[in-house]
Amino acid sequence: MSRLRTFIVEDNPTIRTQLIATLADLAQVECVGFADTEAEAVAWLQSHQDEWDLALVDLFLKQGSGMGVLAAVDQRPPSQKLVVISNYATRDVARRCRELGCDEVFDKSGDVDALIDYCQALR
After folding, report:
1. Which one, of 101, 87, 91, 29, lies nearest residue 58 by Cα?
2. Strands (E) located in 76-118
3. Mean pLDDT, residues 57-83
């Protein structure tokens, strides 16, 4: 079974580490890189276009925002999925994220099982 090559955009090191470990163990996700700012995330995702299957994007970053990341990588192959993980996944936020090209939106604290299921379904 192939691993899902995933790039993580999250500025909290503790959350990022836990997310990487949880998804690796339960969903066969391979973290191919991470960024904690909008500029770093956009630069990596655009310069490594063939090296990721999934990007997990938090909305609030050390610099910039996840919304900026979504807008910058909205032109991608359908096989590459862009997913928001946020503690602020309200209905309005989710709608705006989808308008910017996001495939799914998950609440960081309450939707971890749903995120795992989503990742497993992509493999």
Report:
1. 87
2. 81-86, 104-107
3. 95
Name the token pair of 54. Answer: 């999934």
Helix (H) or strand (E) holding 96: helix 91-99
What Cα–Cα distance (Å) separates residue 34 from each residue in 28, 91, 96, 123? Answer: 17, 27, 23, 20
Domain layout of the chain by residue ranges: 4-122
Largest Cα separation within the chain, whole Å, is: 36
pTM for the predicted model, two decimal places: 0.95
Q: What is the pLDDT of residues 17-61, one digit of tens each?
A: 999 999 999 999 999 999 999 999 999 999 999 999 999 999 999
Fold of 4-122: Rossmann fold (3.40.50)
